[in-house]
Specification:
The chain is mainly α. The protein has 11 helices and no strands. Helix 5 packs across helix 7 and helix 5 packs across helix 9. The longest helix is centred in the middle third of the chain and has 17 residues.
Length: 204
């Protein structure tokens, strides 16, 4: 039977669901391989690259940092969402930069595995998230870091975070701080510093 080689991958996919499209359902073995070879939108296994078919641009991670590219934006300490603690022992209470990094890593782990909110983090650049969260926490805790991430409103505008989602995030941050044995008073002071950001984080 004659193979419909003139069909695009998308047309072939439609044809497979249409019994009236003769030949498309009978492509097997060498014929499939020949079509896949002739059509750059299919991979070696003959499956369709749907992102290429619909013109979706693939982002390539930076070979050094592992982060995905982002649109340019103006960096500013104000983007951190609050002013840092000054002349306090907050950085020490959190274990310095090493302690803050461990808390951030645990915080991200809890969020990405929490069934209540894990969907928010799907298809997100977790490498960049860890870095910018560390910078933000380190900056606010006066532990000697600069914050280079986006402002809170821009960073969360497309995530659809609800009040319930934010409550889950706070619970996970509290758990990460407890596990790191951050004193309770220091935990509350830090949460109070973050609290006003909710207006830029909750979007629905």
């Amino acid at each position: 039977m004659k193979v419909l080689k003139h069909l695009t991958p998308l047309a072939c996919a439609v044809a497979l669901t249409n019994p009236g499209c003769a030949g498309a359902q009978d492509m097997t073995g060498p014929q499939e391989a020949e079509v896949a070879k002739a059509d750059p939108a299919t991979d070696a296994a003959g499956s369709i690259d749907w992102e290429k078919e619909f013109g979706v641009e693939k982002k390539v991670p930076d070979p050094v940092t592992g982060e995905l590219p982002v649109a340019p934006y103006e960096t500013s300490p104000a983007n951190a969402g609050a002013k840092p603690f000054q002349h306090s022992n907050m950085a020490q209470a959190f274990g310095g930069q090493a302690g803050i990094r461990a808390i951030v890593n645990r915080f991200v782990e809890l969020n990405t595995t929490d069934p209540r909110i894990d969907a928010i983090f799907r298809n997100q650049d977790i490498v960049r998230l860890r870095r910018t969260l560390f910078e933000q926490f380190c900056y606010l805790l006066d532990a000697g870091c600069a914050y280079t991430g986006r402002d809170m409103k821009s960073a969360h505008k497309d995530l659809g975070v609800t009040r319930a989602d934010l409550n889950a995030l706070v619970e996970n941050l509290q758990k990460a701080m407890r596990e790191a044995e951050v004193p309770f008073a220091a935990q509350n002071r830090f949460l109070a510093k973050l609290a006003p950001m909710d207006k830029d984080v909750v979007t629905r």
